[in-house]
Amino acid sequence: MTTITPSLDCASLLAEADALAPQVIAWRRHLHMHPEVAFQEHETARFIRETLMAIDGLELSRPTETSVMARLVGGMPGRTIAVRADIDALPILEEHESVFRSRNEGSMHACGHDGHTSIVLGLVTLLARHRESLRGEVRFFFQHAEEVSPGGAEAMVQYGVMDGVEQVIGLHLWSTLPVGRIGLISGPAMAAPDTFQCHIIGTGGHAAAPHQTVDPIAIGAQVVMALQHIVSRAVDPLDHVVVSVTQFVAGTTHNVIPGSAFLGGTVRTFDPALRTRVPQLMERVIKGVCDAHGATYDLVVERGYRPVVNDAALTERLTGVVTRTFGADTLAPMRPSMGGEDFSAYQQRAPGVFAFVGAGNVDAGIAYPHHHPRFQIDERALGMGLTYLLAATLDLLN
């Protein structure tokens, strides 16, 4: 093991990280039992703040009502970096049985944010112990509302948390990546998650006389199928694009053709030009189908987060950190994800890297995808995430 800074012994700190792992697990289990959805993270933020108040040498602030920021200024001058954790849960009824299952019925940490928060609490604890030997400043963001657009990151940035920050890092526990592996993607890593809502307006009537109606269900079904041709026939197959219809709502009973139908869904892209072009293609398709059958429509496309684009030079540097800390076999080849993340808001202000820490274990039955009611993580990933962030932070501050 190499020494990352002349003033801090990396091997000693990594041993401290190992010793702190049980506490990180305990924090995660507490948070898992008390999940709160986006913009409602009042008790979660209170718990984080009270935990941080017990750590000497921190400056605490509340960028928003349900978020917390901690500043740790080292004893020696240096750079300013930021580390981000998201804290919100999802409106999901947990089906996984464990002693620490959700006690807030209908809310669940089904994406690993409880783990992210606990890992960064561990990082604060370790670095604060050695504040006098630390170079520069570290800001720790405990961010609300990652799961709901427009997301909490944008509000944090507007508050000023990124002012003066030179680099920003974050991680995501990843259930489809085996525990013990870490994935780093240079360049586009996560997509822009835009949404759409489309009302198709026809003419309702009796189901026994469909010729007297303009059937929005039949037209909507054609629209769903026609939208699939955007990806398969109107976009270069080498480009990354997803158009998914996830809602189709129409009708109230068996013998009435309704007057309208609602379609909703998501568009995922990386390229800014495609992000603009795909909604135009959607409108052309929807208009064509509706015109052909005498219906009208109302289409609204709402932009979500920007794509997460990892800085190439910083990714290369952190790849070296992973290799030196864990060994080259730890690095997992990963393709970009079409999922979205508002970590991208921080990357608009400074170079940043969002890493993926393996948390899956098929042999132990920990293989459910994110946002599933039986989602779980292999808790060994918490210690690995802490070690990664510790080594990365020390390297960047050097």
Task: Identify the notable features of this structure and list them briefly.
398 residues; alpha/beta; Aminopeptidase; Alpha-Beta Plaits; 2 domains; eight-stranded mixed beta sheet; 9 helices; 35% helix; elongated; disordered N terminus
Can you offer a commentary on this structure?
The protein is an alpha/beta fold and 398 residues long. The protein contains 9 helices and 16 strands. It folds into 2 domains: 10-191 and 307-397, Zn peptidases (Aminopeptidase), CATH 3.40.630; 194-302, Alpha-Beta Plaits. Strand 1 (58-61) and strand 2 form a beta hairpin. The two termini are 16 Å apart. The model is unreliable at 1-6 (pLDDT under 50).
Q: Any idea of the CATH class of the largest domain?
A: Alpha Beta
Most strands sheet: 8 strands, mixed
Class of secondary structure makeup:
alpha/beta
Instruction: From the 3D structure, determine the CATH topology of the largest domain.
Output: Aminopeptidase
CATH architecture of the largest domain: 3-Layer(aba) Sandwich
DSSP E strands, number: 16
Number of helices: 9
Low-confidence stretches: 1-6
The span between the termini is 16 Å
> Residue-averaged pLDDT, rounded?
96
Principal-axis shape: elongated
Estimated share of beta-strand residues = 25-35%
Question: Taking Cα atoms only, what radius of gyration do you get, to the nearest Å?
Answer: 24 Å
Counted up, domains total 2
Order of strands across the biggest sheet? 1-2-4-3-5-16-6-15
Considering the protein shown, what is the CATH homologous superfamily of the largest domain?
Zn peptidases
Q: Give the H and E element order.
A: HHEEEHEHEEEEEHEEEHEEHEHEH
Helix content: 25-40%
